[in-house]
């Protein structure tokens, strides 16, 4: 288990101010939602810890155990791993139970992650690595759009594709709920099933189910999902039930759905895969990008016969691919850092205060234009 390899520290931090949707909170829009954060620090880090030891955000416990085992072989070290649960999911949802409403935007969570990173900045020196699966991959990517230099590299595990919520409100007891979960996901790694049993269910009663099941055993109480099926649903689907008028026209209520594009309703993404694939080919080539595959900064890996849940089913394979990429990127980071440090060390104090000679060779001072005026020509 992770507790055998990592020291686990739990934190609570406030989420970002003003949520994307006004309906995210049940009371005032200024109400503070709290995030449950876990920090995993290796119990036996190498001595001394390298300045290039990576800090990872967004991951899954069995997977990072596997990555930790492969770190030395791939020439990188892990400083710590940070996981922040979305405000309406997991333990965060329990913290915010009396404040949440039926509104959730994915955009809120990447802002929350940025706030968390700034909050713990003293414990998160570079290089930072973003690793996310599904929803987490989307969040990490959006954070990079907002702040391109934040992460040294990304590892995206089948991002964006959404899971269906479990078709249950509650189970008669933890064992029964776990068996239902196993039947739904028969390929799940036993370690992941164990973590689901421990953290994915909570005992009744709750705010949603204030009364326990009749005839239940208090010593073995019925359970419900830690993230309620309703919060799970709104995390996947954004409703707009009044989008069409009686004559079929698309209309957008800008007071509640300003982010929606009316044209998007006519372009089902699953019918435009050729265009999507073309976009993927140029990943990293744009302004602010890494240079893409032509610079060796983007790589695709496929796990044969893997499903969307491969981080939970093919844990070792996912860790092998991720660790190999991390080793390569950390080495590149170390070289770039060394070259940058050498360049900066060659500068004296005055070099940081005045512009260099190249500036004046390229950009002429105003006096140069005055002296170039023809004699006798009056200034306007």
Can you describe this structure?
The protein has helices at 2-5, 61-71, 90-95, 106-119, 135-146, 174-184, 190-199, 229-236, 273-281, 310-313, 315-345, 357-362, 366-371; strands spanning 6-14, 34-42, 54-57, 78-84, 128-133, 153-157, 170-171, 201-203, 223-225. Residues 161-166 have low confidence and may be disordered. By secondary structure, it is an alpha/beta fold. It is globular and about 90 Å long. The termini are far apart. Helices cover 35% and strands 13% of the residues. The strands form 2 sheets. A 6-stranded mixed sheet has the order 1-2-4-3-5-6, sandwiched between helices. A 3-stranded antiparallel sheet has the order 7-9-8. Among the domains are: 1-163 and 310-345, Alpha/Beta hydrolase fold, catalytic domain (Rossmann fold), CATH 3.40.50.1820; 346-371, no CATH class. Strand 5 (128-133), helix 5 (135-146) and strand 6 (153-157) form a beta-alpha-beta unit. It is built from 13 helices and 9 strands. This is AB hydrolase-1 domain-containing protein. InterPro entries: AB_hydrolase_fold.
Across the major sheet, the strand order is 1-2-4-3-5-6
The radius of gyration over CA amounts to 26 Å
Determine the fraction of residues in helical runs and give it as a percent range: 25-40%
* Straight-line distance between termini: 79 Å
CATH topology of the domain at 1-163 and 310-345: Rossmann fold
Indicate the overall shape.
Answer: globular
What profile does the largest beta sheet have? 6 strands, mixed
Overall average residue pLDDT: 85
Could you state the CATH homologous superfamily of the domain at 1-163 and 310-345? Answer: Alpha/Beta hydrolase fold, catalytic domain
Summarize the helix and strand pattern as letters: HEEEHEHHEHEEHHEEHHHHHH
How many distinct helices? Answer: 13
Given this structure, which CATH class of the domain at 1-163 and 310-345 is correct?
Answer: Alpha Beta
Strand tally is 9
């Amino acid at each position: 288990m992770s507790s055998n390899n990592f020291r686990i520290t739990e934190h609570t931090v406030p989420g970002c101010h003003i949520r994307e949707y006004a309906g995210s909170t049940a009371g005032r829009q200024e109400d503070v939602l709290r995030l449950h954060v876990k920090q995993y620090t290796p119990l036996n880090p190498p001595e001394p810890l390298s300045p290039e030891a990576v800090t990872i955000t967004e991951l899954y416990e069995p997977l990072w155990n596997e990555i930790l085992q492969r770190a030395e072989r791939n020439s990188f070290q892990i400083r710590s791993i940070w996981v922040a649960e979305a405000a309406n999911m997991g333990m965060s949802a329990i913290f915010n139970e009396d404040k949440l409403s039926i509104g959730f935007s994915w955009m809120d969570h990447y802002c929350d992650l940025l706030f968390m990173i700034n909050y713990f900045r003293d414990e998160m020196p570079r290089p930072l690595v973003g690793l996310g699966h599904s929803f987490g991959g989307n969040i990490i990517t959006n954070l990079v759009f907002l702040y391109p230099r934040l992460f040294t590299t990304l590892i995206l595990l089948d991002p964006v594709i959404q899971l269906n919520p479990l078709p249950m409100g509650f189970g008669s007891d933890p064992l029964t709920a776990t068996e239902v979960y196993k039947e739904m996901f028969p390929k799940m790694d036993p370690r992941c099933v164990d973590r689901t049993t421990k953290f994915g269910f909570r005992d009744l009663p709750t705010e949603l189910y204030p009364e326990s099941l009749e005839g239940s055993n208090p010593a073995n109480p019925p359970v419900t999902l830690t993230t309620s099926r309703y919060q799970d649903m709104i995390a996947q689907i954004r409703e707009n039930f009044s989008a069409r008028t009686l004559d079929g026209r698309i209309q957008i209520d800008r007071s509640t759905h300003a982010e929606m594009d009316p044209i998007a309703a006519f372009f089902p993404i699953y019918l435009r895969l050729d265009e999507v694939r073309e976009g993927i080919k140029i990943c990293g080539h744009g302004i602010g990008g890494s240079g893409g595959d032509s610079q060796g900064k983007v790589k695709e890996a496929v796990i044969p016969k893997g499903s969307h849940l491969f981080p939970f089913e093919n844990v070792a394979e996912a860790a092998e691919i991720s660790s190999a990429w991390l080793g390569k990127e950390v080495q590149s980071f170390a070289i770039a850092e060394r070259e940058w440090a050498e360049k900066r060390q060659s500068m004296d104090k005055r070099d940081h205060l005045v512009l260099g000679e190249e500036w004046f060779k390229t950009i002429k001072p105003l006096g140069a234009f005055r002296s170039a005026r023809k004699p006798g020509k009056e200034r306007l």
